[in-house]
Amino acid sequence: MNPLALIAEDDKDIADILRAYLEREGFRTVQVADGRTALDVHLALRPDIVLLDITMPLVDGWEVLSEVRRRGGTPVIVITALDQDLDKLQALRVGADDYVIKPFNPVEVVARVKAVLRRAGGLGASGVLRVGPVEVDTTSHIVRVNGHEVALTLTEFRLLTHMARNPTQVFTRGDLVDACMPGSDALDRTVDSHVSKLRRKLDQAGVPDMPEGVRGVGYRLTSRA
To answer: What does 174-223 look like in DSSP terms, one character per residue?
Structure first.
């Protein structure tokens, strides 16, 4: 089954253009015009990628992005008229995979969609991320190592999913708090504790030294491409 793209955009003309170009490249699409519906559809259909406007009615794109990231690892490309560096940095810090400024070239957007899906480690219609022997099913919230299920807490699952989307990227502790523990007052040592427990469980399952600590910076899932 071809990948499903959720287009969350209240400008129908823009949404129609994105839909037409994506469907021409074989994607399945679903369009919504407000943030509340976007969250409902994301929960119900589990799309492979979300194309997200920021200035939408009912629930804005910032809230949608935060909630989608809280739920798991669905890739998100923000498409917006907000062209300030601070807006882009905020989107990337909360967990967006890419940031496109309007007006845009729809051919380029489709190319970026394909690139984000490739970087997501094989995330396709099945909703599965694979990093070496580790398999993260973002739809059923199941983690397997060499076919054997590993029991994780919700926070451990969120940490693993977030890092698995870009396994060689180094994430600061602040990045991980924002993406995986939104709304909490978690401290650095709290992140360290969760990562330590996750590493211990993966080590017991046969995958040592994952996630890796990067001195003075934070964590990455693996240094191997």
So the answer is: HHHHHHHSTT----HHHHHHHHHHHHHHHHHTT--S-SEEETTTEEES-S
CATH of the domain at 8: 3.40.50.2300
Instruction: Please tell me whether residues 95 and 137 are part of one structural domain.
Output: no
- Confidence label for 187 from pLDDT (cuts 50, 70 and 90): confident
Tokens describing residue 212:
């890796």
Is residue 134 located within the same domain as residue 204?
A: yes
The answer to whether residues 45 and 4 touch, using CB atoms and an 8 Å cutoff, is yes
DSSP E strands: which ranges in the chain?
4-8, 28-32, 49-52, 76-80, 98-101, 128-131, 134-137, 142-145, 148-150, 171-172, 212-214, 218-220
Of 106, 109, 107, 101, which is closest to residue 49 (Cα–Cα)? Answer: 109
Q: Which domain holds residue 149?
A: 128-220
- Mean of pLDDT over the chain: 87
Q: Residue 178 sits in a domain of what CATH number? A: 1.10.10.10
What pLDDT, on the 0 to 100 scale, is given for residue 186? 64
